[in-house]
Amino acid sequence: MYTYQYPHPAVTADCLVFARTEEGMKLLLIQRKNEPCKGKWAFPGGFMDIDETTIDAARRELKEETGLEVGELFRVGVFDAVNRDPRERIITVAYYTVLDKPAEVSGLDDAAQARWFLLTELPELAFDHREILREAERVTRLALS
Question: N or C end of the chain: which has fewer CB within 10 A?
Fold first, then answer.
C-alpha cells in the first residue's frame, strides 16, 4: 500500500458505439440508474480497475452495461476538466467504434436501460458527454450530428 501526500484522480473509460442505419447514424446510450445524473443518458463506461488498461475498461463496461461486445476500438481522446464529475476528480479516456448496423442491447448492471438513438434526436447527455461527442465527430470525420 502506498500513501501519497497529494490526492490522485480516478480514471474512467467511456465507449461511443455508432451504428449505420438507413435512417442515419445512431449512437448507443445507457440511461443512468444511479446518481450523479440519475435518469440522464450517457455513454456506456465506468471506472478502470487497478489491473486493466483504459481500453480494457471500456470493453468491460460496455459489456457489463449493455451486453454488447465489439471489435476494434479507437481513441477519441482524454477528457480531464477539473469539475467534469461531481463525485471526485475524474479523468476519462473515450473510445469509439462504428458498427454496420445496431446490435441487440439491454440495460444491465448500473444502466437502467440501453438504447440506440439517431444522432439527430439525442436526449440530454450526462456529464461532459456532449463535448466528448463533438470531439468524436472531429476525430472520426463522420457526419455524426
Answer: N
pTM of the model: 0.93
Residue with cell 480514471: 11
Degrees to nearest 5, angle at CA 47 with 138 and 16: 30
Q: How far apart are CA 100 and CA 69, in angstroms?
A: 14
**Residue 5 domain-assigned (yes or no):** no
CATH of the domain at 35: 3.90.79.10
Cα(45)–Cα(65) distance, rounded to whole angstroms? 8
Helices (H), 33-142: 54-66, 129-140
Query: By residue range, what is the domain housing residue 51?
Result: 10-144
Map residue 17 onto helix, strand or coil.
strand
All residue ranges of the chain with pLDDT < 50 are: 145
Q: Is residue 1 in some structural domain?
A: no
What does the pLDDT read at residue 107?
A: 96
Regarding beta strands 10-19 and 90-99, do their DSSP bridges make them parallel or antiparallel, or are they unpaired? parallel
Report yes or no: 129 and 42 within 8 Å, Cβ to Cβ.
yes
**For 4-23, how does the pLDDT look when each residue is reduced to its tens digit (9 = 90+)?**
788 889 999 999 999 999 99
